[in-house]
Write a structure and sequence with these properties.
By secondary structure, the protein is mostly beta strands. It is built from two helices and seven strands, in the order αβββββββα.
Length: about 100
């Protein structure tokens, strides 16, 4: 193949491959009334929550460093837990967000 006649191929931008998603990891609350998902706030992934059927979702975490990658609903629908660390035989969760003030 003659390289002088080949057309250069544009590379995929790194932001497409490694950037934050617009929305990711949706989870419905245990009682089925709310939904949470990951989305950026100032280019850092945080948890957003809203009532199902509404378009008024708001961030409930305030991570400004590495971002939230994993989270889960507590069984009582009142809390979202992120940043759990397994240490020996104990699990330490220090990212607990109380949803009651905003979503009652």
């Amino acid at each position: 193949m003659n390289k002088s006649n080949s057309t250069p191929v544009a590379l995929i931008p790194r932001s497409i491959l490694f950037g934050n998603p617009v929305k990711a990891n949706p989870q419905i609350s245990p009682d089925g009334t709310m939904m949470a998902y990951l989305a950026p706030v100032n280019d850092v992934l945080n948890v957003w929550v809203g009532k199902i059927g509404s378009d008024k979702y708001q961030p409930v975490t305030k991570d400004e460093d590495r971002g939230v990658r994993f989270y889960f609903w507590a069984a009582d629908n009142k809390y979202i837990v992120d940043k759990c660390v397994k240490f020996l035989s104990s699990t330490i969760c220090h990212g607990v967000t109380n949803l009651l003030p905003s979503f009652q």
